[in-house]
Design goal:
- The strands form 3 sheets. Strands 3-4-5-8-9 form a 5-stranded parallel beta sheet, covered by helices on one side. A two-stranded antiparallel sheet has the order 1-2.
- It is globular.
- The two termini are 26 Å apart.
- The chain contains 6 helices and 9 strands.
- Helix content is 41%, strand content 23%.
Length: 167
Amino acid sequence: MRYRRLGKTGLEVSEIGLGAEWLERHDSREIKEVIDTCEAQGINILDCWMSEPNVRSNIGAALKGRRERWIIQGHIGSTWQKGQYVRTRCMPLVKAAFEDLLARLGTDYIDLGMIHFVDEAAEFQSIMNGEFMEYVRGLKDQGIIRHIGMSTHNPAVAKMGALCGEI
């Protein structure tokens, strides 16, 4: 496996990562097998944006005893409401969902705290100038997230994030 330095983080991540979304439809045994296989092949980065509780718990169980060997991207703003995924900026829901992520993964920190799914420039500005970003900065100051990242499907918003100096 080849590794690359991830931006200014100092983290060395595998060129191939585990995007764990599709693990939602698999049981704990299968998830452990996937993570075991990935690790055996040198994969060391896992993206967990999914808010569904069972997949979070199953990933946490699979990582037990080897958390320090994985770089986890955990998303802030991805919530589970009434049995389904909901992206939100409602702070009580955001905070509860992020605390749930930590608990279910069995960790007290996330390497990359990803501001979840920001596709509009106006939303980016709102996040950066509001309580959402204050919360994210607080998590970083406390060491609960080590680095701030952002997920987007919009190249213009990605550029805004890259140029802001915090992401």
